[in-house]
Amino acid sequence: MTMKAVSLSAMVLLITVSGCSDSADTNGDGSVSRQERAEEMRRDGYLAMQPGRWRMNFAFTEIDVPRLGDEEKASIKAQLAKGASGLSCLSEADAAKPGPDFFGGEGAEDCSYTHFDIAGNRVDMALSCGMGDLGKAKMKLDGTLGDADFNFDTDLEVQVPMAGKIKLKGSMTGTHEGECRGDE
């Protein structure tokens, strides 16, 4: 049996027997450390993502902003989707254990995992990110993650100083596009 077949068989077995959700936050401090995330990935049979150039796209379908009309809401959804979508270069080292900044999107900084659960190719994670002068963002991602693509349902809550709390629902997709080019 080839190594690829063994890995595929192990992944199918993990997906079949999984169904219980566990938490990678083993010390209960509300943040998932690099060590806790690595242990969760090792325990649950994570297949590493391909290093290189990744294109990420956000699309928002719902928005909750008090006191704004439909036209303004549509404009905010479009601006946030455009601002968060973009290109990223995933290094060889990070491909095995992607940091939260990789999933945070463009403009996100100082991201940390607040929840991280993986079983085979199913991922359930939550991030908290700074957005510079724009405020803070909390994001929940739930979906599938493969070595060359991912697809998550997304819940995003942005705390903006001038507008208050903005809640959005949508999706985030990512596709591996080959080697990094330096313009990511």
What does this protein structure show overall?
By secondary structure, the protein is an alpha+beta fold. It has one domain. The protein is 27% helix and 40% strand. The chain is built from five helices and seven strands. The chain has helices at 3-17, 34-43, 70-84, 92-96, 100-104; strands at 52-64, 86-90, 109-119, 122-130, 136-145, 149-160, 164-176. A seven-stranded antiparallel β-sheet has the order 2-1-7-6-5-4-3. Residues 34-43 have a biased composition (Basic and acidic residues). Residues 23-33 have a biased composition (Polar residues). Residues 1-23 form the signal peptide.
Q: How much is the average pLDDT?
A: 77
> Approximately how much helix is present in the residues?
25-40%
What is the CA–CA distance across the termini? 39 Å
Integer count of domains: 1
| Number of strand segments | 7
Order of helices and strands: HHEHEHHEEEEE
Structural class: alpha+beta
Question: Main β-sheet, in a few words?
Answer: 7 strands, antiparallel
Write out the strand line-up for the largest beta sheet, numbering strands in chain order: 2-1-7-6-5-4-3
Rg: 17 Å
Strand portion, in percent?
35-45%
Number of helices: 5
Inertia-based shape: globular
Q: Unreliable segments (pLDDT under 50, ≥5 consecutive)?
A: 1-21
